Amino acid sequence: MQNSLPLVIADGPLAPAILELLDGRVELLPWELTATGSERPIDGIYSYGHLTVDGPVLDRLPGVKVVSNYGVGVDHIHLADAAARGVPVGNTPGVLDGATADMGFTLLLAGARRLAEGDRYSRSDGFTHYDPGYMLGQEAHGAVIGIFGMGRIGQQVARRALAFDMQVVYHNRRRREDLEASLPARYLSKEELLATADYVMLCTPLTAETTGYIGAAELALMKPTALLVNIARGAVVDTDALTNALAERQIFGAALDVTDPEPLPRGHRLLELDNVTIAPHLGSATVQTRQRMAEMSVANLLAGLSGQPLPHQVQS
Ligand code: 8YV
């Protein structure tokens, strides 16, 4: 009976909610088979934790009918390679926008008000008395937020910023005049945005164009009082350039949900700095959002396994 189930390779251990949805519907096999190939023909790949799926992987597993990704970002999946082999790729757009924007704002406020640093200080032996002169931060309300990437998540960030009485400026591959009046938001060139914003928030997908998008030259354009927030992908920022800019106090600080590499090697210089707040990639990590992601990614997987169109197929 077990042998009649479709065979799916996944990079587990998968969350219980996903296992529950897959129970009795597929047989799960370990990710190591993507490196060795498998004697049993594999029907699908379930990508959970951002491991690479490329042409060589698909060639070792020629029976694969679908790649389903738990998450919206698919930079770890070579879409052109999948398309060339006729393998549809599914993802989970829309359901994680609110949670990810909430995280962006959490980081913005935490970085601006030095929350992680304050937490460390509060717990330390050094905190012996309250001093109104210490740990002054930057204000969020009334400030200018510059959003790179005015897609679904960027728009959700903008709405939160407006509720904080911030002015929203943005830069996007395609100017979004439709949103400029409705949000409102003002379009600026990349350079203008960097020089204008008090908070620079990265919400772009990782592509060839956005890899290393924020490097030494871009950081040099930012205000000395500005905070960089990254809820996109670590590689959108040049890690060495950011580390140098923070160490030299060229900008006020950074608040990162993602890093390159991820995790940073223990002992990395960035981890020694007090003007950076780092979260371990928690953008969509809420109980409710992760449940929706589980349902959507399993629906994509099961559709692909049965040769049906995926409810949410990534366009390559
Ligand atoms: C997920 C993400 O945590 O959706 C994305 O692109 O980066 C995150 O929300 C991730 O995909 C799960 O591994």
Descriptive labels:
316 residues; seven-stranded parallel beta sheet; 12 helices; 14% strand; alpha/beta; globular; 12 strands; binds 2-keto-D-gluconic acid; Rossmann fold; five-stranded parallel beta sheet; 2 domains
User: Taking Cα atoms only, what radius of gyration do you get, to the nearest Å?
Assistant: 22 Å
In DSSP terms, counting alpha (H) and pi (I) runs of 4 or more, how many helices? 12
Output the structural class.
Answer: alpha/beta
Largest sheet strand order:
8-7-6-9-10-11-12
Which architecture of the largest domain per CATH? 3-Layer(aba) Sandwich
Instruction: Give the proportion of residues in helices.
Output: 25-40%
Number of E strands: 12
* Biggest β-sheet strands, sense, barrel: 7 strands, parallel
Query: What is the typical, i.e. mean, pLDDT?
Result: 97
How would you classify the quaternary structure? single chain
- What is the straight-line distance between the termini? 36 Å
Order of helices and strands: EHEHEHEHEHHEHEHEHEHEHEEH
Number of domains: 2
- CATH H-tier superfamily of the largest domain: NAD(P)-binding Rossmann-like Domain
